[in-house]
Amino acid sequence: MDHKQPSTPDFPSRLPKVGTTIFTVMSALAAKYQAINLGQGFPDFPCDRALINKVNEAMLADLNQYPPMIGVANLRTGIAKKIGKLYGKHYNPDTEITITAGGTQGILTAILSCVGPNDEVIILEPAYDSYRPSIELAGGKAIALALQVRRDEKNQVSSYEIPWEALAKTINKKTRLIIINSPHNPTGMVWQKTDLDRLADLVKDGDALILSDEVYEHMVYDGMQHHSIASNPLLASRSFLVSSFGKTYHVTGWKVGYVAAPAALMKEFRKVHQFNVFTVNTPMQYGLAQYLDEERRYLDLPSFYQSKRDFFQAGLKKTRFKLLPCPATYFQCVDYSRLDIPEAKLTEDQFCAWLTTEKGVAAIPVSAFYEDAVESGVIRFCFAKQESTLTTGLERLQAL
After folding, report:
1. Does domain 49-298 sit in CATH 1.50.10.10?
2. Residue 122 in contact with residue 167, Cβ under 8 Å?
3. How far is the C-alpha of 116 from the C-alpha of 251, rounded, in Å?
4. Number of neighbouring beta carbons within 10 Å of residue 304
5. How confident is the model at residue 104 (pLDDT cuts 50, 70, 90)?
6. How far is CA 78 from CA 73, 226, 332, in A?
7. Is residue 1's pLDDT more than 60?
8. Which parts of the chain fold into alpha helices (H)?
9. Could you give the 3-state DSSP secondary structure of residue 80?
């Protein structure tokens, strides 16, 4: 009698190069070594109790069944009102806005709705790690352009800039989509109005679409303004705009976001969305719809996070890290390459592992945001934390 255990048949992986994300790896390492987790981008402080109360009220009002596939009407209307007031573009809430299960699902769905086999999609690296796998699942080809790295007299990274010349040469008839991200994760770089105008000039005579990842739209500092893709009429006419309530209202675990796009694009987006997640948590949508009515809750966010950034930067200036500009997001990048310790010669992922296990502070290597790791001696800290968390982390970093 054959007692051989049955085995799972072999099959080709749809994502053969993909493993566990660096965020999961570093968070697990931080938990194992009880390190201060300044790596993964989530707050460690509570959200507003008023928002939770509004969600509870919706639950108790028995708003617990499927909502409309495209999202609760009041929430879509509130989003349209917000975009119109901030960026001067009116989206029809019935045909041009869809509620998604977070920004990442919105990105995947947008890509699946317009990218097919052999279509080219341009991304700018370092890039959020979901872009390339989403393109590959759609059968498309990711064309990665690296942001230009500026260095100072000590050969340390000082800033990142858009590679305009390379971008102009790369756009062609096969270009189906260009993905941009502003404010940018991980570098904190922000696109200016002149940048959007320049992009519009590059695409105006072709058929390339745009996906604009704007999940950090309300985290822009020092009096600067977020320039949304919606604010440029030519770009808005061919763009998916993605944003996130999780980032804005400190509820990343709720996974609620939205996508706005012209009706023709949104029609295709919804075809995929309805068979992807179909719809999104009902009581949270109703709670967010009411909470969104009070504009100060997102208009006050820049000052809230700028105070955290300034506190964190003041502490980092007492270390030997070189601080890169942080005009936006809740991430601070630093160059460690000139630290007077042997570990300064380590690769970025090795340095982050050492920093976590030996010094008790978790960070993310910027090299992880490239398909083929680019080593520049730069790592990323998240300062969306309580002051006590930041203080403890800074004390450990100052001891280096």
Report:
1. no
2. yes
3. 33
4. 13
5. very high
6. 9, 19, 31
7. no
8. 22-32, 49-60, 73-87, 102-114, 131-137, 164-170, 193-203, 233-236, 245-248, 263-276, 282-292, 296-299, 301-316, 348-359, 387-398
9. helix
pLDDT tens readout for residues 303-338: 999 999 999 999 999 999 999 999 999 999 999 999
Cis peptide before 186 (omega within 30 of 0): yes
Query: Percent of the chain, pLDDT > 90?
Result: 92
Cα distance between residue 98 and residue 376, in whole Å: 39
In a 10 Å sphere around its CB, with 0-12 CB exposed, 13-18 middle and 19+ buried, how is residue 131 labelled? buried
How many angstroms separate the Cα of 314 from the Cα of each of 188, 293, 307, 319?
18, 35, 11, 10
Please report, for residues 84, 239, 306, the alpha-carbon distance to residue 200 in angstroms, rounded to integers and kept in the order given: 20, 11, 31
Neighbours of 116 (CB within 10 A): 10
334 close to 324: Cβ distance less than 8 angstroms: yes
Nearest to 124 by CA among 172, 173, 191, 174: 191
Pairing outcome for strands 141-146 and 209-213: unpaired
**Does the domain formed by 22-47+301-398 have CATH 3.90.1150.10?**
yes
Dihedral sign, Cα of residue 95, residue 272, residue 287, residue 80: negative
pLDDT value at 103 more than 60 = yes
The residue ranges of every structural domain in the chain are: 22-47+301-398, 49-298
Tokens linked to 332: 């601070």
pLDDT above 90: residue 4: no
236, 230 in Cβ contact below 8 A? Answer: yes
Global confidence as pTM: 0.96
